[in-house]
Amino acid sequence: MMTTHPANGPADEVILGNCRAVVADDIIDDAWLRVSGGVIQEIGVGAAPAPGVDLGGAHLLPGFIDQHCHGGGGGDFFSVVPGAAALGANMHLRHGTTTLIASLVTATTADLLTQLAVLAPLVDDGTFAGIHLEGPWISRDQCGAHDINLLRSPDPDEVATLIGAGGGRVVMVTIAPELPGAIAAIRYLADHGVVAAVGHTNGDGDVTRAAIDAGARVATHLFNRMPPLDKRAPGPVLALLADPRVVVEFIADGVHIAPELISFVTDSIGADRVAVVTDAMGAAGAPPGNYHIGELEVLVADGVARLASDGALAGSTLTMDRALIVLLAAGCSLPTASRMLSGTPARAMGWTDRGRLAPGLRADLVVLDGDFQVARVMRGGIWVG
Question: Which residues are catalytic?
């Protein structure tokens, strides 16, 4: 028996009709979707086969996937305060992020083990899709908002300890490949099903190419916290852009990188290789003021987060729906932006069950109003906002 959706909660089956669905590289007008069992069962055009939810001509996109995020809504993912990580995850979910990886920052081994233990049940219940270690194995010269006193080279025992403690929940690690032992660590990560990302690096093109050959497949926020592209020493940027095995991240907040550069790179290498991330910290979706990343004090004003000590950028206050607006303003088409916000991150992480609107995939959906603002969010067939 057909049911219309309740105000909030699961539906045995629901038809979403009268929408403009972003499917692959196209926008299908007057589309409808049939969702059942948390999965997209069917996509059609024209009159829906049964009464359901009339979306009033709104755009329908796959749910956003953020593979690099540290917090939001006043909650930090590295916090051991009960409920803090879930608070941030729920804020991003309301903004359309239906798949979220919890990113940690540089800390002692003991603190990282504690943070992994705190996050483990939130990965198990689906709040997070996994955990990302951004540090501690990164460059002192490109540390950004990481405690320079805690940075270190990747010791094999520590790498194995942290990955083992994650119990399969650590899905990505950012590493500077020029550090002693880093190439071996990248091979270890790749062999254990963990996505190795090159980032916070002061390395050159040769060591970057060696990292890719060892198994690195992501560039952590390309251009940010790595040597700039130079005419005689193109460094890691060119090596990462030139290799089709690599997906590059961009923080599309209009601050970390010029929107026109994102558009240029996307046109050059294709949206299949560009993943938009927020790199958001706890101040995302929260009032301006004083915050922390790890033990470092951060001042947030006018939507920009900076270290109190030296004014360096310290993550962002971005949400993925706002990143969509930045991409559209930069000239990206809606299907291209959707691919960068959903499809490419799913591919980078090896997830084949989400990231696109297609039969058989998870019913992770974002409904946008006429101003491209999030009107409703569905995750796994359940309305969550």
Answer: 279
Eight-state DSSP code of residue 140: G
Quote the pTM value: 0.95
pLDDT tens string 154-172: 999 999 999 999 999 999 9
The pLDDT tens digits of the residues spanning 250-281 come to 999 999 999 999 999 999 999 999 999 999 99
Q: How many angstroms separate the CA atoms of 262 and 382, rounded?
A: 33
Return the HEC string of the chain: CCCCCCCCEECCEEEEEEEEEEECCEEEEEEEEEEECCEEEEEEECCCCCCCEEEEEEEEEECEEEEEECEECCEECCCCCCCHHHHHHHHHHHCCEEEEEEEECCCCHHHHHHHHHHHHHHHHCCCCCEEEEECCCCCHHHCCCCCHHHCCCCCHHHHHHHHHHHCCCEEEEEECCCCCCHHHHHHHHHHCCCEEEECCCCCCHHHHHHHHHHCCCEECCCCCCCCCCCCCCCHHHHHHHHCCCCEEEEECCCCCCCHHHHHHHHHHHCHHHEEEECCECCCCCCCCEEEEECCEEEEEECCEEEECCCCCECCECCCHHHHHHHHHHCCCCHHHHHHHHHHHHHHHHCCCCCCCCCCCCECCEEEECCCCCEEEEEECCEECC
Radius of gyration of the chain (CA): 20
pLDDT at 3 over 80: no
pLDDT at 10 exceeding the cut of 90 = no
Please work out, in degrees rounded to the nearest 5, the angle formed at the alpha carbon of residue 269 by the alpha carbons of 198 and 96.
75
Yes or no: say if 190 and 224 are a contact pair by the CB < 8 Å rule: no
pLDDT at residue 9, rounded to an integer: 45
Q: Specify the pLDDT at position 272.
A: 98
Length of the chain: 385
